[in-house]
Amino acid sequence: MKWFLLFWGGPILFLGLWYGLSYYDMNFGIYMLRRDFHDLVFQIYGNVLGIPPDTIPPLVMKAVVVDTLILFGLMALRRRKAIMAWLKGRRLAGL
Fold first, then answer.
1. Which residue pairs, CB below 8 angstroms and at least 24 apart, start in 10-13?
2. Which residue, 8, 23, 33, 68, has most beta carbons within 10 Å?
3. What are the tens digits of pLDDT across the range 58-73?
4. How is the chain split into domains, by residue range?
């Protein structure tokens, strides 16, 4: 399961870091992190998808949130016995 989370979280982290650094043009001399490259990437995606480039980041964020909810839902389903035991232990400890 940790490998699954690593292969899920790695690209999400990379995408978030790239977006944040390139949006604010903190490039450290790397062309990939420049604002004009950022705009070019979203312009290309907008042309391919046929939508305005400024609508792509919210769509990506919604996709990441939905994927995260599905992933954690599957993890909870897989570990439901341990989660229920933990909840029962907390409920009994609180009384």
1. 12/64, 12/68
2. 33
3. 999 999 999 999 988 9
4. 2-94
